[in-house]
Structure formats: structure tokens, C-alpha cells
Design goal:
Rossmann fold, 274 residues, 6-stranded parallel beta sheet
């Protein structure tokens, strides 16, 4: 027998960028179950396609981790405006409360120069569990933090924090090694430069962490407008896309004018018969 040839990159099947970044919708999750075994179809009394949602986040298996959103660190962020960063993070906190998602927030040393945590998180997600780390840069090095995540019982983690390249990256990689599916919300996180942000995004995708955005998380968890809390979701869109508020206002005004015209049309014949 000849010497066995070692397989190299040229032997691997070609994958598009989308295939590389997106999870395999048929692959088993951390619990060993395939999407077909754990349905994520829309539950609103209407018949939907059976495969819908199979590759999306399942709210019943999802937790939100907010990492080091500290006011001192905000001053070092250069890849997104601080106002946008805070608004997007606040929206995630509101979304978690609306959808009853567990929230774990943490800071390495809130009494230090990095500053206190932004108060909007506790304001909009009062159920959030806070873990005061003991100086660890990587939250996954803190036993109390890991136990808090484990206590949620969820295997899909949405992470956001400052800095993205460190405070999100390190626990994201460790969480994946521990069997979790991890999404990194890029616009609810921040880095000290555009170059750092681009490098971070590349490392995420190479490692299998799914980069996403606040508007995508909102839509992915909402799934349908055919729900009793649709108006509350609409308000959340105005936090991540302020212009959407103008869309709502213009639509509301147009509906008001249409109603007034309809009422006036109905009243005119009645007045003529008097």
C-alpha cells in the first residue's frame, strides 16, 4: 500500500460565505436535537410552513448576556456612536422583558475607572441577574457568571458588550467550547477603532460565532405581526431605527384623515334629508 495522503484545504468542499457564516439548519443543537425535533414555527393559530424558523433563534432556548456596558468604557468606543450603542442596548433589555428572556449582566469592576453600568439595563430589564466579577477580563473565567448562565437553562446566547473584541469575544469563544450557540450583537457592542471592529468580526465568523444586529434580533424573535403585543414591538423598532417612528406617525395620520373623510361622507346624505 502506498503512503496515505494527508487531506489539505483543496480537499474540502467549497462553501460560500453565506454557508460559512450561517448555521446548518439540519444540524443537531447543543441538546442533541435537530430543528425538526424542536419546532420553532410561529404559534398564532394560523397554519404556517412547517420548516419556518428551523434555522432561527428559538425564544424558549435563548438568553441575553450584557457584558461590561460601563459608562467609562463608552468613552473609548469609536466604531459606533455612544447614543446609538446605548439605545440599541436598551432595546435589547426591553425586548428581553417583553419576551420573558433571562438576562445576565456583568462588570469586571464597576467601582473602577471603567465606570458604572448604564442604568437603562436595570431600568428596562429589572429581572436581570447581575454578576460582579472579581477583576476577570473574560466573564467566562468567573464561576458565578458561568453558573448564572447555566441557571437559565438556555443553550442559545445573545451577547453584547464593550469592548466587542474582548468582553464579548472571550466569553463567546468559551461559551461555544462549552456547547452553546452564540450570537454577537455588533451594534449593541463597541470597539476602540474601526480596524478593531473589522478584526473582531473576522474572528467571530472564523470561530463560528454568529454576528448579528439589534434590528435582526428584534425581527428574529418577533417573527410575526399577528400577535397581541404587536404595538409594543412597533415601539421597539423606533429605538433601533428612529425613522421608523416617522413611518408609524405618517401612517397613523393617513388613517386618521381617511376616517374623517369616511365619517364626513356618511354624515352628508343624512344632513340632506333633514
Amino acid at each position: 500500500m502506498g503512503e496515505r495522503r494527508r487531506l489539505g484545504p483543496e480537499d474540502q468542499p467549497h462553501r460560500t460565505l453565506e454557508e460559512t457564516l450561517m448555521p446548518n439548519p439540519k444540524a443537531p443543537g447543543p441538546d442533541g436535537k435537530t430543528p425538526a425535533q424542536t419546532s420553532n414555527s410561529i404559534q398564532d393559530g394560523i397554519k404556517h410552513a412547517p420548516g419556518g424558523g428551523a434555522a432561527l433563534m428559538h425564544p424558549a432556548d435563548t438568553a441575553l448576556l450584557l457584558l461590561d456596558h460601563q459608562t467609562g468604557l463608552f468613552q473609548t468606543v469609536k466604531d459606533i456612536s455612544v447614543s446609538e450603542l446605548r439605545a440599541n442596548t436598551a432595546m435589547l433589555a426591553k425586548l428581553a422583558t417583553l419576551m420573558k428572556l433571562p438576562v445576565v449582566q456583568t462588570a469586571s469592576e464597576p467601582e473602577g475607572p471603567n465606570g458604572p453600568l448604564m442604568p437603562e439595563i436595570q431600568q428596562f430589564a429589572p429581572h436581570a441577574v447581575f454578576v460582579h466579577r472579581k477583576g476577570e477580563v473574560n466573564a467566562w473565567d468567573n464561576e458565578a457568571f458561568v453558573k448564572a448562565v447555566e441557571a437559565t437553562g438556555r443553550k442559545t446566547l445573545i451577547m453584547a458588550g464593550v469592548w466587542t473584541s474582548v468582553c464579548v469575544m472571550f466569553p463567546a469563544l468559551d461559551a461555544m467550547a462549552a456547547g452553546y450557540k452564540v450570537y454577537a450583537v455588533m451594534d449593541a457592542s463597541g470597539d476602540p477603532s474601526e480596524m478593531t471592529s473589522r478584526t473582531t468580526l473576522a474572528r467571530f465568523t472564523q470561530a463560528g460565532v454568529v454576528p448579528t444586529s439589534t434590528n435582526a434580533v428584534l425581527c428574529e424573535l418577533q417573527r410575526t405581526w399577528n400577535r397581541a403585543d404587536a404595538a409594543q414591538f412597533a415601539q421597539l423598532y423606533t429605538m433601533v431605527a428612529p425613522n421608523y417612528g416617522a413611518v408609524m406617525e405618517s401612517y397613523g395620520k393617513a388613517q386618521e384623515v381617511a376616517r374623517q373623510q369616511h365619517d364626513a361622507t356618511k354624515a352628508t346624505p343624512e344632513a340632506a334629508h333633514r
